[in-house]
Design goal:
The protein is mainly β. Helices cover 11% and strands 45% of the residues. It has an 8-stranded antiparallel sheet, with helices on one face. The chain has a 6-stranded mixed sheet with strand order 1-5-4-6-3-2. Strands 7, 8, 11 and 12 form a 4-stranded antiparallel sheet that branches.
């Protein structure tokens, strides 16, 4: 029996994908929704609702004509991915049995229609977010690159270590679009790589507009900490593929203090005239007096992006504050108070006709973030994550505080 991958995330966006229209033509969108395949708690395929499934299978058979014998199996995904959704059940054993039984039924139907699931179909079990999605499936044709490269990154010294002026940080990174490395869709190849230090491109590599799709690209730039460094050196590796999908991975290197951290947030709001977004990042730096007392600073930037009627543009401002707090190492408990908050936020957006709203200091969840930090097992880091609701906007905010390693 072919192994089945299980995904433990929930999806609420399935209804946004293309749906077969029942006319006998293959799904025009990918992923496409294949609705109403199974009744609740049953694993018998509903014959009355197989038109969308048959349309998808026809499209799959068209795409695999000629076979894929010469493909690098570690580079390319199987041509087809089918994700079958089952409602969560408090009886976990029954849920697993139902998922497997439904997938077995679907696989048998594929075979009857001439589609070899062993050679051509990646099988994924997912949990439905709502009862109406139970027994539905998503079908994806894996012949288009839909995903960015996969970055793997280490450094010497390791991230979270304290560094000093003149010290060299050696980055060891690779970017890949091979399926074995975690790339999900058909690869287009890594086109370019960049080392970005605190917003400035320091080194780069370009591999052309049509790079070999299966080649793993190594990247080992060296960064020298400047004479007057920031409190935290942010080094980011950015990779982009030939279709324009980009991704990044960041490593932080403090230059002073005993504890340091980062606060990241974003909120999206849709109004009748268009979308509004707020997002930002702030660094935290804390000194420990050796008796459990903490003092330090918070500094960062926030942006508002508007695409509403009569006002398109980005407005930037800075944030800073003084920090006090306490840490009890034995109890693994830390509290941080944000004092003397200062923001350069203008009242009016850059377009001149809309308000900038409020900054993160005015959000109710901002104070909660600093009072609900949960420790890691070793007590060397603390984290807090909150969902954000501001007016009609939704988003999230994450605060991470870490103990400096290898203090010099």
């Amino acid at each position: 029996m072919k192994p089945v991958r299980v995904v433990l995330y929930y999806t609420a966006t399935i209804v946004l994908f293309g749906m077969a229209d029942g006319s006998g033509a293959p799904c025009s969108g990918t992923p496409c929704q294949i609705p109403n395949l199974f009744d609740p708690d049953l694993a018998d395929l509903k014959s009355a609702n197989n038109q969308a499934l048959n349309d998808f299978i026809k499209g799959a058979l068209d795409r695999i004509k000629g076979g894929n014998k010469d493909m690098d199996k570690d580079c390319y995904p199987l041509p087809i991915t089918v994700t079958l959704y089952t409602a969560a059940n408090p009886d976990f054993d029954f849920q697993n049995l139902l998922q497997q039984a439904r997938m077995d039924t679907l696989v048998s139907y594929f075979k009857e229609q001439g589609l070899d699931p062993q050679k051509n179909v990646e099988q994924v079990n997912g949990l439905a977010a709502a009862a109406r999605l139970d027994g539905t499936a998503n079908g994806t044709y894996n012949d288009v690159d839909l995903d960015p490269p996969v970055i793997k990154m280490t450094s010497t010294p390791p991230e979270n270590n304290k560094v000093k002026p003149g010290e060299k940080i050696k980055i060891h990174a690779t970017a890949s679009e091979r399926h074995a490395d975690g790339h999900r869709s058909s690869p287009s190849g890594v086109k370019s790589l960049q080392l970005i230090a605190d917003g400035t491109v320091m080194d780069s590599k370009d591999f052309g507009m049509k790079p070999p799709p299966c080649e793993v690209r190594p990247f080992e730039p060296i960064y020298t900490v400047p004479k007057n460094p920031p409190e935290i050196v942010h080094l980011l590796i950015y990779a982009e593929d030939a279709t324009g999908h980009g991704t990044s991975k960041e490593a932080d290197f403090p230059t002073r203090g005993d504890w340091y951290g980062r606060l990241d947030w974003s909120v999206h709001q849709m109004v009748p005239t268009g979308p509004q977004e707020w997002f930002g990042h702030a660094d935290l730096m804390l000194d420990d007096d050796g008796q459990g007392g903490l003092t330090g600073t918070l500094s960062g930037t926030e942006k508002q992006k508007l695409a509403i009627e009569g006002c398109h543009g980005v407005t930037n401002w800075t944030l800073k504050a003084r920090l006090t707090g306490t840490i009890t190492t034995s109890a693994k408990k830390i509290t941080i108070n944000v004092m003397d908050r200062q923001s350069t936020r203008p009242e009016t957006a850059s377009c001149g006709t809309a308000s900038t709203g409020g900054d993160i200091f005015s959000w109710r969840q901002f104070n909660e973030m600093f009072q609900t930090l949960a420790p890691s097992a070793d007590g060397n880091s603390y984290q807090s994550h909150h969902d954000i609701k501001v007016h009609n906007g939704i988003g999230d905010c994450t605060l991470i505080v870490r103990k400096l390693q290898n203090k010099k």
